[in-house]
Write a structure and sequence with these properties.
- There is one protein chain.
- By secondary structure, the protein is α+β, with helices and mostly antiparallel strands.
- The protein has two domains: about 35 residues, no CATH class; about 80 residues, protein ne1242 fold (2-Layer Sandwich).
- The chain contains two helices and eight strands, in the order αββββββαββ.
- The strands form three sheets. The chain has a four-stranded antiparallel sheet with strand order 1-2-3-4, with helices on one face. The chain has a two-stranded antiparallel sheet with strand order 5-6. Strands 7-8 form a two-stranded antiparallel sheet.
- A hairpin with a 2-residue loop joins β1 and β2.
């Protein structure tokens, strides 16, 4: 018996063994897309989920929106309100968030940024709404 007709474990290589290996490989290649398609879709990360909570007595509401204002996981911008007033968030290149209340600290999620804004506002301050179209004033007031 030649060296080429044996594997290292001294089991002879037969035509039947080669055919079984080829058949198993072909079956795996054919079934892979079917199995992959049957898996559940991508589960959203905690940063993709909308939130609606009361934090330190303030109502925080947030959802991602895509094109046309549709709620969409994993894409679009965050629409966040604190007590019904918009809290503008900015996404940094590293994926963290800044809020209009605190430009100096970044937060890992939109919810963390909204909670930090509530902490910064304290119990008496409210987010300032836009009084006039194009006024350009943003921030907080008592």
């Amino acid at each position: 018996m030649s060296v080429s007709s044996r594997v290292s474990s001294r089991v002879p290589v037969t035509r039947r063994g080669v055919m079984h290996g080829l058949l198993a490989s072909a079956a795996a290649a054919v079934l892979a897309p079917v199995v992959t398609a049957s898996w559940p879709p991508h589960l959203p990360s905690p940063d993709d989920l909308s939130f609606d909570e009361v934090y330190h007595g303030r109502h925080i509401l947030g959802a991602r929106t895509g094109a046309g204002g549709r709620a969409e996981a994993g894409g679009g911008e965050w629409q966040v309100t604190v007590d019904g007033r918009p809290l503008h968030l900015m996404r940094r290149a590293d994926g963290s968030y800044l809020s209009m209340v605190d430009h100096y600290q970044s937060y890992p999620t939109a919810l963390a940024a909204a909670r930090a804004a509530v902490d910064e506002l304290g119990p008496s301050e409210q987010l300032r709404g836009v009084e006039a179209e194009g006024s350009g004033h943003h921030g907080v007031h008592a």
